[in-house]
Specification:
globular, Beta Polymerase, domain 2, alpha+beta, single chain, 2 domains, about 280 residues, 11 helices
């Protein structure tokens, strides 16, 4: 919890943190890679996990130099078998940079996660800077508006609604509003996002009540419609669909190429004991 008007929590049990770090160390050995960054995504990262929420661990890794020098590209993801409530998977650095060039919102959220399990500080700081500098407001806005429309259409039509589905529509709508306001890459934390984009006290209070219930209930728990939130969503969807945003910059691919080259070479020197 914190001093914000909206409640927010990012619970990670110490034993689970140790299990996650052990899992990351094992996959480094098994796949001969180096994990550069690992974070929590999903509801624990957003700040509204339920007691039975999964741990969604996402990571970025770099392969050995020889992996990048083959005619046929290798598999560029590592997906661990789901174990209990632990879900661990990650992307190779080249794939990561290809997605960064497209302002992939999932990747940008990882880099802004409030729960970081490990990171190579200098490398990840450069990666975050590249993500910010090359951010496409158009791509990000379209992604979040489309996500909100899809989730609303699929999950909020009935009289009984799962608590978390309201948040799965609110979050992308507020991310779109953040972008529309010219703020750049949206934050991952829902409380930060909502407090920066909403000034309707009654709406914030209703969202807070929803968060309180959702964070105590199971993932599948439902309730009747939340009238104030539902009305806001319908109005915001109409507004968002009628708005346009423009890009002020384009990603510099040469900088991404240089980052990839330098990171792979640095990892190779470390592996060979020459750095």
């Amino acid at each position: 919890m914190n001093n914000e008007a909206l409640i927010s929590a990012h619970p990670i049990e110490p034993a689970m943190r140790e299990q996650i770090l052990d899992s990351l160390q094992r996959l480094e050995v098994d796949h001969d890679v180096k994990v550069l960054f690992a974070c929590e995504s999903g509801s624990r990262g957003w700040g509204f996990a339920s007691p039975d929420s999964d741990y969604d661990v996402r990571f970025i890794y770099v392969n050995r130099l020889s992996w990048y020098l083959t005619v046929e590209s290798g598999r560029d993801v590592i997906e661990q078998p789901i174990s209990g409530d632990l879900d661990v998977n990650g992307w190779d650095l080249r794939k990561t940079l290809q997605l960064l060039r497209q302002s992939n919102p999932t990747l940008l959220e990882w880099l802004r996660s409030p729960i970081v399990y490990l990171e190579e500080a200098d490398t990840v700081a450069r990666l975050r800077a590249l993500a910010e500098d090359g951010f496409s407001a158009v791509r990000g806005y379209h992604h979040y508006v489309s996500m909100a429309k899809k989730n609303f259409r699929e999950h909020l039509r009935g009289e009984e609604v799962r608590y978390k589905k309201y948040l799965y529509v609110l979050r992308p709508l507020l991310a779109a509003r953040w972008i529309r306001d010219g703020r750049g890459v949206p934050p991952m934390r829902f409380a930060e996002l909502a407090e920066a984009t909403l000034d309707d006290r009654a709406l914030l209070d209703e969202i807070n009540r929803l968060l309180q219930v959702k964070m105590r209930a199971g993932e599948a728990a439902t309730s009747p419609r939340w009238v104030g939130i539902h009305n806001f969503i319908e109005n915001e969807l109409e507004t968002a669909g009628a708005q346009l945003v423009v890009d002020s910059s384009r990603p510099d691919t040469s900088m991404l190429d240089a980052f990839l080259y330098e990171t792979v070479q640095k990892n190779e020197r470390e592996k060979n004991g020459t750095d």
